[in-house]
Each structure stands twice: as C-alpha cells, then as structure tokens.
Design brief:
There is one protein chain. This protein is of the alpha+beta class and 243 residues long. It has a domain of 164 residues: 2,3-Dihydroxybiphenyl 1,2-Dioxygenase, domain 1 (Roll). Helices cover 21% and strands 34% of the residues. The protein contains five helices and 13 strands. Strand 12 and strand 13 form a beta hairpin. Helix 4 runs antiparallel to helix 5. One of its GO terms (molecular function) is metal ion binding.
C-alpha cells in the first residue's frame, strides 16, 4: 500500500482539532495577595472558591474560583508566589468579561448585560499585532471557530471572537488589534489559558505544524505532569500568548 504524501498527511492532521472535544478550562494569572483577591472575587462578583492549595516546597499557593464546578465551567486560577506582592500586567492583556477597575491586582473585568448564559465567565481578551494571522492560528492550531469580527475605523481597532460554540453558550477568546500597533508588553502577571483535549500528543503535533507556518512554538513537549495523572503540552502563539 502506498504511503500518503506529506501534504496529505499534514492535511489529515490539521483536521484533528475540528474533531477533538475541546472547551476552555481556566485562565491563569498571578496576584500579590491571594486571600485579598479571593475575598474580592467572592464578595464582589459572587464567585465560589472551588479549591485552594499551598505548595511550600515550590513556594507558591493557588486558588480556583468560578461560578460552578471546574468539570463544566470556565474558571480562574489565581497563583501567589511567596514574597511577590505585585506584577506588571503589561499592555497586551485586555480583560476578563463578567466592568470594574477596582480589582485589587489591577485586572479589568467587563460586565456584559445579556440573557441567561451557561458560562458567566464569558470572555478572555488579548491584544495581538496581526489579527488575520492570529485568527488563522487559533482556527488551525486549536480548532476554534471564528464567530464574528468587528472593524471600527473611528476607534482605530478591530476585534475577533473565537471559540468552540456560540458566545451565549460558552467562554470565547476575544482578540483585539489596534491599528498600527504590532507589539505589546506582556508583563509577568497574566500566565495562560488552559484548553481540554482528548489526545495531547496529536494536538501538539498539530500545533507544531501550524507554528512552522504562522509562528509561535511548543514550550513544553506533551507528556504527564510528574505525580499527577494529567498529560499536558504548552505553547505560545505568534504574539507570545501561552496556552
């Protein structure tokens, strides 16, 4: 039997993200006072503290908060590194959508008024330097669907919403491009967004293939986390945003 050509094999591999069962799991960012932030999110936003752990041997603590269990809701993971009381959020991170500027660590939240939704934590907004390239990357590497785009010449910006279902059904990624701005500071506060997959090895293959065309790179090869029955891979997109 003749072997498939490399082009055919790559085309077949690129179909995998569209077939995979994926959803946004959580966004990770660093805070300077974990208890203060937990208090703010639970009292001001009505989030639930789902779990909290302290890892003294690695000098950090983290907490997961959301509007329902991690198994079915998108949640936030707050990380506190011992002795670090503040972080630089940078100019690239936009907001999480559920707007108040009173978050104790300076993260911006956008409150959206709309009908009942199964996913109250509904957007993660990141700024990118080439919107077309980023749309292609998230479609091809992660199998997301482009839900809508908005171009606003009067505000000199354009937006794209991408995700695994419609905006009123699930968490989506909002990519923002400001005319003429090709680069942003990342800071050291926002860390990454986590997405589920049925096959971390095959997913990493796809990402590796797409990065050769559009940029970005694998930063952690696929495999199990020591001591846990969880397999992960990590990568950055063409703008350096980590998944």
């Amino acid at each position: 039997m003749a072997e498939a050509s490399p082009a055919a094999a790559n085309a077949e591999l690129l179909e995998w993200p569209k077939k995979d069962k994926r959803r946004f799991l959580h966004a990770v960012y660093r805070v300077g006072d974990l208890d203060r932030t937990i208090k703010y999110y639970t009292e001001c936003f009505g989030m639930e503290l789902l779990r909290k752990r302290d890892v003294p041997e690695e000098k950090y603590s983290n907490a997961f908060l959301g509007f329902g269990p991690e198994q079915s809701y998108f949640v936030v993971e707050l990380t506190y590194n011992y002795g670090v009381t503040s972080y630089d959020i940078g100019t690239g991170f936009g907001h999480l959508a559920i707007a108040t500027e009173d978050d104790p660590d300076g993260y911006i939240f956008e409150l959206i008024q709309r009908g009942p939704t199964p996913e109250p934590l509904c957007q993660v907004m990141l700024r990118v330097g080439d919107l077309g390239r980023s749309i292609k990357f998230y479609e091809k590497a992660l199998g997301m669907k482009l839900l809508r785009t908005i171009d606003s010449p009067e505000l000199k910006c354009a937006l794209a919403m991408l995700g695994y279902a419609e905006e009123d059904q699930t968490t989506v990624l909002e990519l923002a491009y400001s005319y003429g701005v090709t680069e942003y500071t990342k800071g050291n506060a926002y860390a990454q967004v986590a997405i589920s997959t049925d096959d971390v090895y095959k997913s990493a293959e796809v990402v590796n293939l797409v990065t050769q065309e559009l940029g970005g790179k694998i930063t952690r090869q696929p495999g199990p986390i020591p001591g846990l029955n969880t397999k992960i891979t990590s990568f950055v997109d063409p703008d350096g945003w980590k998944t």
